[in-house]
């Protein structure tokens, strides 16, 4: 009798444990897929201009039925947020930001290669498996033709003109990935390939900013377009868009040399909507999306199969003096570059 009671008790314990484990598994599944159903949501962190994101998001939603929420902020701010969220991310995808900004955070990204990787230009392939390249972004100088007068702006050296003091728009490079890439471009171009020698120029340029650093990249190009600043240091896409819209704007590819960097997209590790995140990466790198990126949104595509229209306003790369940085050096020294920039800025 005692043995029978003991066995019954053991059976009760085993069944209770099984029930608890099954309930936990069910709760986890429901959290990931919404009451056991396939998720139809996606949360995207993005520093891209809203006007760039919206057409692509609209197409993605129409094609997949997935509802996308975009959280917009500077790349630096969003990456810090991803780091703070750790193993319990609130976002699913980080869409935008240069490699120099994204690569230090690969530990927070999920390994994934897009279904379109075989069509990506060889030098921009996702070789490490974490960051998919989706557009190519040259650093440029934006000029307001109504404010610049007779001054000729052809490159970085022209920005040291004392008459431009306080009239140059530039965003904080610790908050904006495009601004950080501008600093890298300036260091290499003005240092003739040696970034350490470029700091002499950088100190002079910072002095000419007259203690003005803007909060983000959009404040830079909007500030020039709105007539608050005569020139701005920014990236190609918004400048081309303003020109195509008839604004009194010029675009300058610095005569000292222009660096073209890819922007990236990455899936956040442990993303709640993992499958939807993969669908999104595949979508923005497919032929149709890349054609939209090039010929409607004024970004250079990463697919070798997509051609840019002649009348879109982007100068062929063959007509631009291109230079390169050492990506590994830029990544390894990012913190010290930002520290030195801040030190110079605060001492002026």
Automatic annotation (TrEMBL):
Q: Does the keyword Signal apply?
A: yes
One protein family per Pfam: SBP_bac_8
The alphabetized UniProt keywords are:
Signal
> What name does the UniProt record give this protein?
ABC transporter substrate-binding protein
Q: Name one GO biological process term.
A: thiamine transport
Which N-terminal stretch is annotated as signal sequence?
A: 1-22
| Superkingdom in the source lineage | Bacteria
Q: Which InterPro entries match?
A: Ferric-bd, SBP
**What SUPFAM superfamilies is this protein classified in?**
Periplasmic binding protein-like II
Q: Name one GO molecular function term.
A: thiamine pyrophosphate binding
Q: Which CDD domains match?
A: PBP2_BitB
Record-level GO cellular component terms:
outer membrane-bounded periplasmic space
């Amino acid at each position: 009798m005692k043995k029978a009671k003991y066995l019954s008790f053991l059976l009760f314990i085993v069944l209770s444990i099984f029930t608890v484990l099954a309930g936990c598994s069910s709760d986890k599944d429901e959290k990931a897929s919404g009451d056991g159903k396939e998720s139809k949501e996606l949360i995207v962190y993005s520093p891209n201009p809203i006007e760039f994101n919206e057409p692509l998001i609209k197409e993605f939603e129409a094609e997949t039925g997935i509802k996308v929420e975009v959280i917009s902020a500077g790349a630096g701010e969003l990456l810090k947020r991803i780091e703070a969220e750790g193993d319990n991310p609130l976002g699913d995808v980080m869409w935008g930001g240069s490699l120099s900004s994204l690569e230090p955070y690969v530990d927070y990204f999920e390994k994934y290669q897009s279904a379109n990787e075989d069509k990506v230009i060889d030098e921009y392939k996702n070789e490490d498996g974490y960051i998919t390249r989706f557009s190519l972004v040259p650093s440029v100088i934006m000029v307001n033709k109504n404010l610049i007068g007779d001054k000729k702006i052809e490159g970085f050296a022209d920005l040291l003109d004392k008459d431009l003091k306080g009239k140059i728009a530039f965003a904080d490079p610790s908050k904006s990935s495009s601004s950080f890439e501008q600093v890298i471009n300036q260091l290499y171009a003005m240092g003739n390939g040696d970034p350490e020698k470029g700091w002499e120029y950088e100190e002079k340029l910072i002095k000419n900013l007259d203690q003005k650093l803007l909060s983000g990249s959009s404040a830079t190009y909007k500030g020039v377009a709105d007539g608050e600043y005569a020139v701005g240091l920014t990236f190609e896409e918004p400048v081309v868009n303003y020109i195509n819209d008839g604004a009194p704007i010029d675009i300058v590819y610095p005569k000292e040399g222009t660096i073209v960097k890819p922007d990236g997209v990455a899936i956040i590790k442990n993303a709640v909507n993992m499958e939807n995140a993969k669908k999104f990466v595949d979508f923005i790198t497919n032929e149709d999306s890349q054609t939209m990126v090039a010929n409607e949104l004024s970004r250079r595509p990463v697919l070798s199969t997509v051609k840019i229209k002649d009348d879109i306003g982007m100068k062929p790369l063959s007509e631009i003096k291109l230079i390169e940085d050492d990506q590994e050096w830029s990544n390894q020294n990012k913190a010290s570059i930002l520290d030195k920039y801040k030190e110079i800025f605060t001492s002026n």
